[in-house]
C-alpha cells in the first residue's frame, strides 16, 4: 500500500508595472499577452479538473494592470501601442514609427514554440531576416499588409492552447493565414479583450468554489527584507558588498504600506483579506516575518535553501532533507498563527525548467514518481510544497504546456495516496489536530534569504545592483524631504506614493548584471531610471543627471537554477 502524501501546488503570477505614468502608455505588452495565453490556460486546466486543488498567488499590481486594460476596452481609449494598432479600423498608411514598433516587438517570442509551428508566421520571419541582412533601409520594401499580418500572427501565436481549441475566431484566422483584413484584426482584438476581461472573474469563481486558495504579495512586489535592512543580505553571505547607502530610510513603514495596500485590494477583489502571503522572490527575514505576524497573516513560504541555512545555523548540522523539508515550521518569536512552508526546490524547478524538454505524459509520470519516492522515505506523512512561476515557463513547453498540465492534473486527482490541498486547508486541519496534518517544526531563528540560492545575491551585492539601490535611496530621501515640507497637495502626494511604490519593485534589481541578456537589461534598466525620474518630477525637483545615464547593459543569458523565468 502506498504511503499518503499532501501536495500543495502554488502558481505565482507576477508582472511589474509597465505603465509609464508620465505618458499614460504601457511600455511593454506582457500583462495582456500572458493574460490571453497563460492566465487563461491556467484557469481552463483548473476548471477541467474538479479533483485538483492549488494555491494561486496574484501580485496586486498585476491585477491592477489587468483591470486597467479592462477599463481601456470599456472606454475604447487604448494606451497600449500594439493593441491600438490591432484595433485600428481606418485605412491610413502606417507611420514609420508604427512600422518599426511592430518589426521590433512582434518577432520577440520563442522561435521554436511560438513562430516555427505556424508556417505563415515563419515565412514572415524568414522574409524579415532576408531584408535585415541587406540593412534596415531594406525594411522600406515591406508593405503595410506585411506589418499587419505580422501584428496579427504575433497575437494569434500568443493565445493559449485552450483558446486555439475553443475560439472559432482564432481557429478561423489561423486557417486564413495571410492577408488579414481590418475586419479580421478588429474581430481578433474583441476576442482578446474578452479573454482579458474574464481572467479575474474565472479565478474568483474557482476560489469561491473552494477549488483554489488565492494568496497575495505586497503591492508592487518589493524585496521586503532588503527594504527593512540591507544587512539582512549578510545573513547568508557575510562577505557581500552592500550599497553605499546605509539603508532604505523608512523601510518598515514602506513595507507595511505595501502589505496593507495588497490586503485592501485583495479584499476588494475577492471579498476578504488573503490568509497567506507569498513574499516577493520568496524573500524572508526575521524582521519581515514579525510584520506578517503582526498583520494576522496565517502563512508564508520561501525556498528550501532558506530552511537549510536556518537549520544548519541552529544546530551545526543538517541531516536528511526527507526528515526536515516536508513539514511546516513556526519561527521562534512569532505568534501561534504564522506558519512557514518551504518549497521543494528540485520538484519546482523540474516543472519550471526541465519538463518542457520531455514528452508531457512522461514528465507527469516522473513528477508523480518523485512524490511517491518522497512519501516512501519521509518518516511522517509529508506535505510537499511545489511553488513556481505560473506564467513564463509555458512558453518553452510544446502547446503551452497543454499536454503536460492535462496529464499531470489527471494523474494527481486520480492518485490513491496523493492528496492535493492548499495551505489554508492544511492549517485548518492542523488547528483541528487532524491526523492528516503533521505537527509543525520549530525554528529558533531564520536566516534571511530568497528562493534563488537561498540568498539575495540576485538583487544586491554587485556594483550595478548596488548602484540601482543607491539611486532608489537617493530618491527616497528627496521624497521624504518634500513630503515633510508639506508643499504637496493630497493629489500630488498620492501620485508620488504610487510612483515610489512602483520604484521599490524587486524587478528593477533583478535585471542589472552582465549575465542577463542585453535586450532585456536595457529595457528594464531604462524603465527603472524613467520611473525614478518621474518621481522627481512629481516632487517638483530637478531630475538628477545620473538618471539620464545607463548603468547596466547586460551580455549573457538569464540565470536559472531555482529562479523563476522573468517576463521578457
Task: Annotate the secondary structure layout.
Blueprint (H helix, E strand, L loop, with lengths): L4 E9 L16 H19 L5 E5 L1 H16 L5 H7 L8 H10 L5 H5 L3 H14 L11 H14 L3 H6 L1 H9 L5 H27 L3 E4 L8 H5 L22 H20 L5 E2 L8 H9 L4 E4 L1 H12 L5 H4 L4 E3 L7 E4 L2 H10 L5 H18 L5 E7 L12 H12 L4 E4 L1 H9 L9 E3 L19 H23 L4 H14 L3 H4 L7 H21 L30
Helix pairs in contact: 1-10, 2-10, 17-18, 20-21, 21-23
Descriptive account of the structure:
- With 568 residues, the chain is α/β, with parallel strands linked by helices.
- The protein has 23 helices and ten strands.
- Strands 1, 2, 3, 8 and 9 form a five-stranded parallel β-sheet that branches.
- Mean pLDDT is 94; it is low at 558-568.
Quick gist of this model?
The protein has 568 residues and is an alpha/beta fold. It is 51% helix and 8% strand.
Characteristic terms for this protein:
568 residues, alpha/beta, single chain, 51% helix, 23 helices, three-stranded parallel beta sheet
